[in-house]
Structures are given as C-alpha cells and as structure tokens.
Amino acid sequence: MTAAVVIVAFVAYAALAENVTSPHVFSDELLYFDAAASVVEGGGLAVRSEPYRYSPLYPGLLAALLTVVPDRVAAYELAKALNALIFVAITWSVCWMFAQAI
User: Are 62 and 75 in contact (CB under 8 A)?
Assistant: First the structure.
C-alpha cells in the first residue's frame, strides 16, 4: 500500500512539473545547473568562474544527469522528474518516521 502511495504521488508531482517549461521564478535552478555543467566540463563546482558555496549534493546529481543527457533543455525535463522523486522520497520518509514515533 505504501509503495502505491509513493508511486501515485511521484506520478502526480511529475505530471504537474510538466507544466513548468523553464526556470522563471527563482534563479537557484540556473545556479544549480551552472554548477553541474561546470563539474561536467571539468571545472569543479563553480558558477561563472566563482566558487560554488552551497551543498554539492544536488549539483552532483544534476552533473550525473548532464553526463547522461548533455542537452540542458532535455536534462531540465528529466531534472523535474528527479525533483518529484526526491520530494516524494523525503515526504514519505518524514511521514514514516513520524508514524514510528507515535
């Protein structure tokens, strides 16, 4: 039952993300993609030749994605699905931990 809820939540969240055609509200998406592209190009974690000062985890995931799919537009589409998966996994984990504590 729990797996079904996670799968349905992932599909629903990913479907909603399809309506977002490009990053247009927050610049952090561009920052993460620039840092990831820098890693893929061999420049380490940097954004516009400046050191990247945040957690390397998400840009690392995006760098792996950009390695497989070099086209940034296509990678952005896959990144939205990746974000949905991460969101659902974290939400499920928090709910599970809360249920265990009760």
Answer: yes
What CA–CA distances, in Å, run from 56 to 43, 46, 47? 14, 10, 12
- Domain tally, the chain: 1
pLDDT tens for the chain, 102 residues long, are 677 877 888 888 788 777 777 666 667 888 999 999 999 999 999 998 889 999 999 999 999 999 999 998 899 889 988 988 898 889 888 888 988 988
SS3 50: strand
- Cα atoms found within 13 Å of the Cα of residue 33, Cβ hemisphere only: 20
Beta carbons within 10 angstroms of residue 81's beta carbon: 17
User: What burial class does residue 35 get, using C-beta atoms within 10 Å of its C-beta: 0-12 exposed, 13-18 middle, 19+ buried?
Assistant: buried
pLDDT for 30 equals 86
**Three-state DSSP state, 52:** coil
Range of the domain at 42: 2-101
